[in-house]
Design goal:
This protein has 162 residues and is of the alpha/beta class. Helix content is 42%, strand content 19%. It has a single domain, classed as 3-Layer(aba) Sandwich (Rossmann fold). The chain is built from seven helices and five strands. The protein is globular and about 50 Å long.
Length: 162
């Protein structure tokens, strides 16, 4: 299969930190696409809890052994432009709730306006993963017995780093 005939998707996020919801998206994406580029986007206006190097390490330890996953970073670039740059035809996104749906619909429309050759594919995670977010994880850290609570929401390499 030539590179031009491969189905390549990019799944981007801040992964601050990586959650089991992200992991579900990655595993599903590897079933749908020949190659899934999991990319950490950096936004100079956003305050991150974990450094880019820490987030990359957590991602590599959690998904680095999956054969059709490539890990990358990008900054100061629209996601749709990054997708085009790396030869991806698809952007993979997840919907946890109705607010996500409204937001993702708007983003898909803007991305289509910027480059109509890139298709947004949206997946809905199972019910038990819908409430998990990086912000929720960070909010649980530090309270008595927090590791016991959080271990059900993040991959084990991430729990070790937290």
């Amino acid at each position: 299969m030539t590179n031009s005939s491969k189905r390549i998707a990019v799944y981007a996020g801040s992964f601050d930190p990586l959650t089991n919801g992200h992991m579900w998206m990655i595993h599903e994406g590897t079933k749908l696409f020949d190659q899934l580029v999991v990319a950490i986007g950096t936004n100079p206006d956003k305050k991150y809890t974990y450094s880019l190097d820490q987030r990359l390490a957590m991602l590599k330890e959690s998904v680095g052994k999956i054969s059709n996953v490539k890990i990358d970073t990008f900054q100061n670039m629209y996601l749709v432009k990054y997708a085009k740059k790396i030869g991806a035809q698809y952007i993979l996104r997840g919907l946890r709730n109705s607010s996500d749906c409204t937001y993702e619909q708007g983003m898909a429309n803007v991305n289509r306006d910027i480059d109509s050759s890139i298709t947004t594919v949206v997946l809905m995670p199972p019910r038990d993963l819908c409430e998990i977010s990086s912000s929720m994880i960070k909010g649980l850290i530090g309270v008595d017995n927090w590791r016991q609570i959080i271990k059900q929401y993040v991959p084990s390499p991430v729990l070790k780093k937290l």
